[in-house]
Structures are given as structure tokens and as C-alpha cells.
Amino acid sequence: xxxxxxxxxxxxxxxxxxxxxxxxxxxxxxxxxxxxxxxxxxxxxxxxxxxxxxxxxxxxxxxxxxxxxxxxxxxxxxxxxxxxxxxxxxxxxxxxxxxxxxxxxxxxxxxxxxxxxxxxxxxxxxxxxxxxxxxxxxxxxxxxxxxxxxxxxxxxxxxxxxxxxxxxxxxxxxxxxxxxxxxxxxxxxxxxxxxxxxxxxxxxxxxxxxxxxxxxxxxxxxxxxxxxxxxxxxxxxxxxxxxxxxxxxxxxxxxxxxxxxxxxxxxxxxxxxxxxxxxxxxxxxx
Length: 286
Ligand SMILES: C[S@@+](CC[C@H](N)C(=O)[O-])C[C@H]1O[C@@H](n2cnc3c(N)ncnc32)[C@H](O)[C@@H]1O
Known about the structure:
Number of domains: 1
Structural class: alpha/beta
Distance between the termini: 16 Å
CATH superfamily: Vaccinia Virus protein VP39
Number of strands: 7
CATH topology: Rossmann fold
Strand content: 5-15%
CATH class: Alpha Beta
Bound molecules: S-adenosylmethionine
CATH architecture: 3-Layer(aba) Sandwich
Strand order of the largest sheet: 3-2-1-4-5-7-6
Order of helices and strands: HHHHEHEHEHEHEHEE
Radius of gyration: 18 Å
Low-confidence stretches: none
């Protein structure tokens, strides 16, 4: 058994998210899915712009009064917010966990399965470059065609999770062209260090796992049961002691949580799940 009560970690949306959760379900119940998705997408763009603007205050305060680390963290968060679906807390958590592996000199690559437009992947790559002493390989796996359909394992009472955004097949899309542009042109990361692997995890992860080798940090952000289970099962044994695993969707997507709980139970993993403050978790391999 895991040492964390299944119900103790819950989705914790921002204030605006909490307000949206009051009226979006009404819209969802009266509008056809395609129209609801259009309305949702329009609101989401403005929501993200507002959050980006609001973060500017934190960014300035941190640049003026923060420690060296918080200056780097807020600078990277500010730059990468436009490319992130998880927002500030997901980015800051990706920074903190990268700091954890760098300060403990854990050997191995940085791997993300579920990249979308590349925000958290870029955060780990840039944080590692700034905090680490050695260059790591970065492997970023995605269909680059958006989400697949959920499977039966993802559903509980007819729902796939505790979220309000619609997640039909093809959503959360970041194309390989978009992410290549971000990584190689905008951020000037090296193609020798950053590999984008396009395709379904079911095909790409088992095929590439030997090429990836040791994994210091595994970030799972594929939303669904299979999309969490496959990389976890394939990469876990390649993570050395002290390596870290982030599961972005633990409290938001039922299937992701199920895959993690089952895996931890089967392997008798008792390393505590630590929260990112919005529903994601991470744990250290001990
Ligand atoms: C929520 S998004 C990732 C968000 C991203 N980490 C960020 O920082 O904004 C989920 C991503 O997982 C990918 N994905 C989910 N299941 C997959 C699978 N089985 N194979 C390949 N890609 C998958 C989708 O294409 C999508 O880009």
C-alpha cells in the first residue's frame, strides 16, 4: 500500500478557476460540446493572459528582493508561462524538482511524456542548464497531435476527471513545429541535447527506452491511464536512487491517479507523494 491516503490529495484550482467551476458546468450542460469547446477556448486564452499579467508583480518583487534561485525561477516562469498548460504552479514545481536532482547530482536524462506546447519541458531544460554542472540529455515524448481518446480505465461515474476543460481527442495540442521552434530557435537549446520524439507512447517509449538510458527526472503529463502507466512502467527501473517522478495530473485525471496508485502498490513504493499546490504530485525514488 502507498503511505498516502487516496483522498488526501485534491485538485486545488486558482481563485479564477474556482469561480469558473461555478458557472462553466452550467454552460457545458446547455451547449453542444463543439460550441462549449469554442466558448471555453476563448475564455481560456483571456484567463491565461490575465494570469501572465498577474505574475508580472511576483516576477518584479522576486527580481528585486529574491534569492538567486528565486530570481532564476521567476525569470524562467515569466518567460515560459505562454507555453504552459499547467500554469505557474506546474512551472515552479518543474523548477523545484529540477533543483532537487541538480543539487543532489543525480545522474541521468530529463524525460517528459506529454509536452504539448513545451512549457514545462523547456522549464526543466533551462533550469538544468542554469543550476547544474553537467549537461544532461533531454527527451521530450508526445504524439504532437494532441490527446488520444481516454479508455475505460479513465472513467469514474461517467467522468474522466475533476476538471472543467473539455478534453476530446486531439486537444492539448502542441505541434512538433511549434515545439521545435520554441526549443531550438526561441530558446537556442541544442539539437544534440534535446530530442523530440513524435508518436504514441505505446510505440515510442518501449522503442527508445534503451537509447534514453538513466533517467534522473521523469515528468508524466499525458492525462490518461495508459499515457501515465506506459512511461512509468518503462522508465522506472532506469531511475537511480534519488531520481524524481512528477505526475502532473494526479488529482485531476482519474486514470492518471489510478495508474500511479496501482504502480506504487505493485512495487511497494512508500516514498511520500509531495504536492505541487494545484493537484500535481512528485516523489523521489528511495
Ligand atoms: C496536458 S498536455 C501536456 C502539457 C505540458 N506538459 C505543458 O507544460 O503545458 C498532455 C499532452 O500529452 C500528450 N499525450 C497524451 N497521451 C499520449 C500518448 N499516449 N502518446 C503520445 N502523446 C500523448 C498529448 O498530445 C498532449 O500534448
